[in-house]
Design brief:
The chain is an alpha/beta fold and 326 residues long. It has one domain. The protein has 9 helices and 7 strands, in the order βαβαβββββααααααα. The strands form 2 sheets. Strands 1-3-7-6-2 form a 5-stranded mixed β-sheet. The protein has a two-stranded antiparallel sheet with strand order 4-5. α4 crosses α7 and α7 packs antiparallel against α9. It is a single-pass membrane protein. InterPro entries: Uncharacterised_pept_Zn_put. Keywords: Cell projection, Cilium, Flagellum, Membrane, Transmembrane, Transmembrane helix.
């Protein structure tokens, strides 16, 4: 991707090095255990240290999809979208804050991390340009999201996110959260290298922000509250595949309007989409696949919908909710 010398977004918050207490109860309500990647409208209290240990055990040792866990109700009813999971991620004790602690211990940032921050800022800027133009063509105004860089754990309006849960979008504060260490995992563990694979991750999360702006996210969450686990998971899959398709629409604009895509970039994005399919992750973490528990879509589905958005370049191509074939 030809990114050097391009505009960097001003909507990046660098919270790396912050080490805060987990701060239960979560802002706007406690952490709940919904049946799928959202759902539930109740407001509860904090889960306490025992609940935290259960969560860590599930994520780390059993490869549980964190979207089943980290879905705290935000102040405006928004759920988080932890999208790209790190199966069997081993926690780094130095990154987890002591309960209730507020010490600010700065971890030195490497030159590579700072370069990656600039890259992410450029990618975010391209999404701003792309979606601003798309919304303008629809007669609407695009409200730019913030992107938060963190290390270890981070507070959001949807609850506390941890690095082991992967990047996520919180509609309650309209922010994307990414621990840059995830990109090392994407390259080494998922075997999905390349800068455009990294850009795809940002574009997918921004896709959830587009869904929020269009009112899709609120409708999906309302529908899931009336559903059981199996039906809710199926609806969430359509939500995630649409975000993949929106990422493809962004890539189309990147190539058509900006000329920033280089040979091999789209293959890198497709490789990342394939690497993080539910079927592949379940196979890695538990040795078998349970399609009814999918919340993000199979590798083949994620690749197909990203490609569809990229080849068509229009929002209308991304209607995952009214198609018989995902």
């Amino acid at each position: 991707m030809r990114w050097r010398g391009q505009r960097e977004s001003e909507n990046v918050e660098d919270r790396r090095g912050e080490r805060r207490g987990f701060g239960f109860p979560f802002p706007g309500g406690g952490m709940r255990f919904p049946s799928s990647g959202g759902g539930g409208g109740g407001r509860g209290g904090g889960i306490g240290i025992v609940g935290l240990l259960i969560i860590l055990g599930l994520v780390v040792f059993f490869g549980v999809d964190p979207s089943v866990i980290m879905q705290g109700q935000g102040p405006n009813g928004g759920q988080g979208f932890p999208d790209i999971r790190l199966p069997q991620q081993q926690p780094d004790a130095t990154n987890f804050p002591a309960p209730g602690g507020q010490a600010q211990i700065e971890r030195p940032k490497s030159a590579g991390e700072d370069d990656l921050k600039r890259f992410i800022s450029v990618v975010l800027a391209t999404t701003e340009d792309s979606w601003t133009q798309t919304f303008r063509e629809l007669g609407a105004r695009y409200r730019e999201p913030k992107l938060v860089l963190f290390s270890g754990a981070v507070r959001s309006a949807c609850g506390t996110g941890m690095a082991a849960m992967g990047p996520f979008y919180c509609p309650a504060d309209e922010k994307v959260y990414i621990d840059l260490d995830f990109y090392r995992e994407l390259k080494n563990r998922f075997r999905a290298p390349g800068d455009f694979a990294q850009a795809y991750v940002v574009a997918h999360e921004v896709g959830h922000h587009v869904q929020k702006q269009l009112g899709i996210a609120d409708k999906v969450e309302a529908a899931k509250r009336r559903m059981g686990a199996k039906e809710g998971n199926a609806l969430q899959v359509r939500m995630e595949l649409q975000a993949d398709c929106f990422a493809g629409v962004w890539a189309h604009r990147m190539e058509a309007d900006k000329g920033l895509i280089e040979p091999g970039d789209i293959d890198e994005a497709l490789g990342a989409a394939s690497a993080i399919g539910d079927d592949r992750i379940q196979k890695q973490t538990q040795g078998y696949v349970v399609p009814d528990s999918f919340t993000h879509g199979s590798s083949e589905q994620r690749v197909r919908w990203f490609r569809r958005g990229y080849e068509d370049g229009a929002l209308q191509a991304c209607d995952t909710f009214n198609t018989g074939r995902l």
